[in-house]
Amino acid sequence: MQSHSPTTPFGRRSLTLAHVASQMGATARPPEKVVHKWNIFHAICTARPRLGVSERSLSVLNALLTFHPETALTGEDDLIVFPSNDKLTLRAHGMPASTLRRHLAVLVDAGLIIRRDSPNGKRYARKDNAGEIALAFGFDLSPLVVRSEEFEHLAADIEAEARALRLVRERITLCRRDIAKMIATGIEEGVPTRRGGQGPADWQEVHAAFRAMLGQIPRTATREQLEPIADELSQLADDVLNLLEAHIKSKNPSANESQSERHIQNSNPDPLIDLEPVFQEGRAARAEPSSQPSRVAEGSYPLGMVLDACPSIVDYTKGGISNWRDFMATAAVVRSMLGISPSAWEEAQTVMGEVQAAIVVACILQRGTAINSAGGYLRGLTRKAQAGEFSLGPILMAQINSRLREKKRA
């Protein structure tokens, strides 16, 4: 007598048209088709977001596949596995029975497996006189064979999208680095930003446009959102490079050697003096011979911790930041870009100390467009520090935690 293959689930479970469609596809699978079960499982894992299944559901599918003795899944073999809940729980790393049933239902609804329930809902197999399995009740893995091409195409699309997203992120990172360093060079070298009355008014305006572009980047961005921003940053990088190249071309070629010599003589390893010579000399004249040390010692916050919290400041240095001297010199460049006045900067350094003031500037830079007026924000923090109501530690930890959350979401 020919056995009947069940199509409806046991008990109160309902039958949907999607379940019927999965069963129709399983019966129509080509008998000559052969697929590697672990290759298909890998494709399903990659295509998981499109299939609407969770990682734990896939761990249950992985456990089900281990109960099929063969690595190859063919269109002519019986692909029903019938493990008990106890054995399936063990291979699913101790998953509770209630959770196991829920994820099995998810796999069925997603069309990855088919229920072949027995009259009493138990999973078992009947054998014939020759000892071969004649009828089995459990979970049918046939959809993995039928939909193998679909899973592979979905996985290929997702991998291509992820690759394109990585490329656009790399493009943005390179543009950010180039623009930041070129702006710093423009300020240090005194490159004019207007040519023939055209162009931005000053480097602060260029930097403000740069920060506005970075402020458009969402924390969890898609490729479609990032590509227009990458185009804007690329255009800005080209414009800034053109400013630097035009300044070089405007110099007298016959005086290149003498100009190079003057550049070497005028260059100073401490850009703090280059940027604000009058301001620095005035402060040095007012300082007492036995001036008190900074309120925050350089070792109070490790430099690595500060750079981890505020990595954007590294983009504004030419040779990297290896010590506190490099950090404070770069902060002075950033201070000028952010439009912080010399008086606000001097007041912050007097009240907070040079190191802590530089760290605050790095934090302001990292916050980007979230801070409308960098100078006003710094003055507010200076007043709080003067009243003993300001602590830099929580700000640094908040920055680090924010970056960790962004990395996790990415």
Q: How does this structure look, described?
A:
By secondary structure, the protein is mostly helical. It has three domains: 130 residues, Arc Repressor Mutant, subunit A (Orthogonal Bundle); 92 residues; 131 residues, no CATH class. 60% of the residues lie in helices and 6% in strands. The protein is built from 19 helices and six strands. The strands form two sheets. Strands 3, 4, 5 and 6 form a four-stranded antiparallel beta sheet that branches. Strands 1-2 form a two-stranded antiparallel ribbon. A hairpin with a 5-residue loop joins strand 5 and strand 6. It starts with 16 loop residues before the first helix and ends with a helix. About 11% of the residues have low confidence.
List keywords for this structure.
3 domains; 410 residues; Arc Repressor Mutant, subunit A; elongated; four-stranded antiparallel beta sheet; two-stranded antiparallel sheet
Short characterization:
The protein is mainly alpha-helical. It is built from 19 helices and 6 strands. The strands form 2 sheets. Strands 3, 4, 5 and 6 form a 4-stranded antiparallel sheet that branches.
